[in-house]
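wait is this the right file?? whatever heres the structure
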């Protein structure tokens, strides 16, 4: 069923149009009118009218051959404006570049989006063999290094909601046991960084550290990710040190001063 609000200031047509836009994802880059009608609980005629309006404004594009819709340039334009004006993006961008230089691997800035983790900035490494990652793509927080860092330092015990939603196995090394995940997060809090080895994608490893704002709250995570043949076991301690230093400097740029926090 469609979501309704008792707030008279909220326009249902605008709300439904935004719900349509949020239905697109990396895993579902195209959508059909019928599918949206079912998933959002809206009449096909309503979905069709809203998509026509969104297409007129450049937010979606209709494929004339298939009749399916995909996101348009207007979404990209707005996304670029948001990213370029995020304080954390401006402060961390040069640190990501330095991290790539120091480790030779791709670096990301991540935040939580609901129960998942999303990359909001990326600096690509120069190696011909790279790990394919996507800006804006949502990943399960419990089997990525950035996600585990954000869960470990979350003040709202979000991990219990993640566990309740289910710990799906993406690979044979994904953490699917709730107690094991809780112990992993406790370890991350103690040592200050997280590692994910083939937990989401076979053959990859990532290392992540937290970034705090001026209040001391962990608001994002910084990581490096690469193939196992380059990010071997013996290299992890040095990589972790570099990632933590980057996270520490990013936190200081965000106004965090450890002297004022326990």
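ok assuming it is, sequence goes like this
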């Amino acid at each position: 069923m469609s979501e309704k609000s008792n707030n008279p200031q909220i326009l249902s047509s605008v709300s439904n149009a935004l719900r349509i836009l949020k239905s697109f994802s990396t895993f579902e880059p195209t959508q059909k009118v019928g599918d949206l009608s079912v998933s959002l609980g809206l009449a096909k005629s309503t979905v069709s009218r809203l998509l026509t309006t969104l297409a007129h404004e450049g937010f979606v594009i209709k494929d004339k051959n298939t009749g399916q819709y995909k996101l348009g340039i207007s979404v990209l334009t707005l996304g670029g404006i948001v990213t370029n004006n995020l304080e954390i993006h401006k402060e961390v961008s040069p640190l990501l570049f330095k991290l790539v230089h120091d480790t030779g691997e791709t670096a990301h800035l991540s935040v939580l989006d609901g129960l998942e983790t999303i990359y909001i900035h990326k600096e690509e490494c120069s190696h011909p063999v790279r790990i394919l990652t996507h800006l804006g793509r949502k990943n399960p927080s419990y089997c990525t290094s950035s996600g585990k860092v954000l869960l470990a330092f979350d003040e709202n015990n979000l991990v219990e909601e993640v566990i309740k939603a289910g710990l799906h196995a993406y690979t044979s090394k994904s953490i699917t046991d709730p107690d094991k995940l809780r112990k992993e997060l406790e370890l991350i809090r103690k040592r200050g960084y997280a590692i994910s080895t083939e937990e989401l994608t076979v053959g990859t490893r990532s290392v992540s550290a937290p970034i705090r704002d001026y209040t001391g709250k962990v608001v994002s995570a910084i990581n490096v990710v690469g193939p196992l043949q380059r990010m071997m076991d013996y290299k992890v301690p040095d990589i972790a040190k570099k990632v933590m230093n980057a996270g520490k400097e990013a936190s200081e740029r965000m106004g965090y001063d450890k002297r004022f926090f326990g």
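The first helix runs from residue 12 to 22. so i think its the right one actually
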